[in-house]
Amino acid sequence: MLIEEIQEKVTQSSVALRDVRQEIGKAVIGQDAIISRLLIAILADGHVLIEGVPGLAKTLIVSSLAQSLQASFARIQFTPDLLPADITGTLIFNQKTAEFSPKRGPIFANFILADEINRAPSKVQSALLEAMQERQVTIGDSTELLPKPFFVMATQNPIEQEGTYPLPEAQVDRFMMKLIIRYPSMEEERRILQLMVDPKPITINPVLSPAQIEAMRGVMHMVYMEDKLSDYILHLVMATRHPERYPRLSALGPLISFGASPRASINLARAAKAHAYMAGRAFVIPDDIKAIGKDILRHRIVLSYEAEAEEIKSEEIIGRILDEIEVP
Question: How far apart are CA 95 and CA 76, in angstroms?
């Protein structure tokens, strides 16, 4: 297919995303970057882990997004006494038929908010992460597919560590992006105050349907990426594993215990295409990769004790890599 034909399809189908953002903006003030990244993850069929203090509208963002996309939404509050069956579902005995029948859990929704995922034990975390990866759930003897689209946004609180079960690095890798949600500016908080004090209900109109999202994904995959940009992605990921192979990054070697996995390369390519698609472009440019680089890589680099002793963050290392690797 010619690039002109792809451009026409991208232009026609991506315009609705502006309406989606406009509808979400009725309820959510600020957080434009977070909303943009969530839309990228939905288009690229990935999941998102958000770290931030309570009260920053994480639940409101996802529920508003689900309403604008005519998708079902479920919020799961993770607690230490939660069981895997509380998420996936279980078998219920029917006394009339004397048979067991499956009862679906809340995970059978298009959009899932896994609130404070690090408060639940590892068995519960694994049940969610398995469903995220396999897109199916086994209840008793039957295996049921999860709906499409299926999107999980998990949150964790960076303040309280007592009574929590941190996600292992290997499991965190299942998330396409890890986002850091910030406090709003003073002007944004003034608008939030005005909005929340006003008793008028906020109505979010549906803009897209799940079927339309699937169609948009098909167009997004057509977005063209040159081989040299694929090589650029591979060099970025390789620099996290073997910084000594790059003369200007050799000092990073002692700071990294483990680099990014192949999922990083795959997700960088998918997210870059989604970023270009949202911009209305039929082709990827280096800025698309750079724009989402930190969000894709920040949770995939395991720092050494030396880096932790020097209080060096993974974002600093990723920033160095993005600055030093030659852009094609």
Answer: 29
Which residues lie across from 224 on neighbouring strands? 283
Largest CA distance in the chain: 73
pTM for this predicted structure: 0.90
The ranges of the chain annotated as CATH 1.10.8.80 are 223-324
Q: What backbone torsions phi and psi does residue 94 show, to the nearest 5 degrees? A: -95, 115
Predicted confidence (pLDDT) per residue in 197-221, tens digit: 876 788 888 999 989 999 999 999 9
Q: Which CATH number fits domain 17-207: 3.40.50.300, 1.20.81.30, 3.40.50.2300, 2.60.40.10?
A: 3.40.50.300
As a whole number, the mean pLDDT across the chain is: 88
Q: Which residues contact 198 (CB under 8 A, 6 or more apart)?
A: none
- At 253-277, the pLDDT tens digits run 899 999 899 999 999 999 999 999 9
- Which residues of the chain are in CATH 3.40.50.300 domains? 17-207
CATH number of the domain located at residue range(s) 223-324 in this protein: 1.10.8.80
Contacts of 144 (CB under 8 A, 6+ apart): 102, 104, 108, 136, 137, 138
Q: What pairs with residue 137 in β-bridges?
A: 144
Distance separating alpha carbons of residues 134 and 88, to the nearest angstrom: 13
